[in-house]
Amino acid sequence: MTKRGVRFECSLLAGLALTGLALTPSATATEKVAISIDASKAGVQINRNIFGQFAEHLGHGIYDGIWVGPDSTIPNTRGIRNDVVAALKAIKVPNVRWPGGCFADEYHWRKGVGIQRTVSLNPNWGGVTETNTFGTHEFMDFVDQIGSDAYVSINVGSGTPQEAAEWLEYMTTAQPTTLEKERAANGHPAPYKISMLGIGNESWDCGGNMTPEYYLSQMKIYSRFVRNFNPAQQDKEQMLKIAVGPGGDEPRWTDWTETVMKAYQQHTWSWDINGLSMHSYTVGHWPSSSASVGFGETEYSQILKHTLEMDALISKHSAIMDKYDPQKRVALIIDEWGAWYAPLPGSNPGFLVQQNTLRDAILAALNLNIFARHADRVRGANIAQMINVLQAMIMTDKEKMVLSPTYYIFKMYVPFQDSTFLPVQFNSGTYSHDGISLPRVDAIAAEGKDGKLWVAFTNLDPNEAVEIELNVTGVTAKSTSGETLTASKVDSTNSFDAPNIVVPKPISAKAQGGKLTLKLDPKSVSVVSVE
Ligand code: AHR
Q1: Residue 9 is a catalytic residue
Q2: Per-residue pLDDT tens for 292-305?
Q3: Is 0.85 topped by the overall pTM?
Q4: How far is Cα 307 from Cα 202, in angstroms, rounded to an integer?
C-alpha cells in the first residue's frame, strides 16, 4: 500500500466514525454484512443540489449535446434536443453550472445575446470556433425545459466587475432599464431567476493564476457589485454567491481556503459569500493516462481507491471552514468532480471525450455517499460534465443518444434529493486486490421527502456477492424493493448500438425470521425503499 493509501484509510476511518459508520477490516468475503439504521436519529438534510450538473462550452458538451438549432432534423424545441431534455428531466437535475469551467473566465456575455452573434474562439478547449449561438437566453430556456436552476459562473479572469454586474442586471431586473428592455426585445420580458453565482473559476490556475490574496480582493469587489435584482429573489430564494475554493490536497489550497474563510469571518455588510467551491477529479496522475474502457481489476481498484480520497479532502477543508464559520453558513460546493481519463483514441484531445463504464457508476455512488455523509457542510456538487465530456450522463452522436451507467446512478438516487440523512452502522469488511484494499461495502440511508426509508448499497467487490442483513431500529420492516445496477464486467458500458448493457434491474427482499436479507451482486449499486 502506498503512503497515499495509508493516509486515505486513516482519514476515512475518522470520517466514518463521525457519521456513526464503523469500518473494520475484519469481515471477510464470505461473511454476511449486518447493517443497522436507527430511524429515530434523523440528521441533516441531504441538499438536492449535490446532484447538480456541469455544462461547459467544451467539445460537444453544448453544441450537438444540448443545442442542435431550431432548423435541425433532430427533434428539438427552440433548438434544444428533445431526447436530451426528456432524459435530464427524469433525473431531476437540481442545477446546471454554466458556461464553464475555464471557458467562463474568457466568456463575454454580450457575444451570446441578440440576433447578431459574435463568432469567437475557444482557446482552452481545442482552439475551435465558438459561434455563441448558445448564449444566455438559450441556457435559461434549457434549464427551464429540464426543470432545473441556473448556476452561472461569471468572468473574473478576463472580464470586469462592470461587465458581470451588467450581465446580472440584464438577466434579473424587472425595472424598465435599458438592459431590461434589451432582454425583453430579445424575447424574455420577465426577469430570469439565477439561483447560484460562481465568482470566478479556478482563479488559482486557468482563471487567472491569482494568489489567494489577489483573488480575495477581486472576489470582494464582485460580491459587492454583481447584484441579483429579481424581485422574487430578494427575501426568499436569494442567489447564493460561491467563491473560488481549493483544487486539491496541496498546501497551496490549504492556504487558499484559510485566506478566503479567515476573511469571511471578518466580513462586513458590503460583501458576502454563501459557498466555497472545491474541485477534485479522480484522475490518478496528471496528465491523465488511465484508459476509460478496456481495463481490468487492478485499474478498477486503483481508481476507486483514488476516488475515496474525496472523503479526506472534504474533511480537511471542512475543518478549516469550521474554524472560521462554526455555524456552517458557508457551504462547501464540490462544483467539479468525477473521473478524468485519457481521451478516447481518435478523439480531439481538447474535447475530453471518454467512455463511461460500470466502474464510473460505482465511483459516482461512492462520491454521492461521501457528500451525503458531509451533508452539513457539502450542500452542492456538480459532476463534470453533463453531456459528451468527461464523466458524462449522456452521449450523443448526431441523432443518436445513449445514457451512461453514471446516468442511472443519478436516476436511482433521486429519492435522496432533499431527504433527511439517517446514520448507518455496519462493518464494511475489506476487498483486496493487487495490494490495494478497499471497503467491500458502502451504504447510506435517508428518510425521503415521500416519507419512505431509502437505503443505497454499493458492493465494491467485483467477484463476490454480499449478503446484507438489514435491521431498522424501531421499525418492523416487511420488505424492500428498488433497483440494482451491475453488469458482467467492470468496464461494461452502454453504446449507441447496445444501449442496455448497464441498466437498472428490480431488486427486492422479504423479511424472514424477523430479518430482512438482501443479496448484492458483485460490483453493484442498489437503491431500495424499506416498507
Ligand atoms: O471540466 C474541465 C475543466 O476542468 C474545467 O474547465 C476547469 O475548471 C477544470 O480544470
Answers
A1: no
A2: 999 999 999 999 99
A3: yes
A4: 20
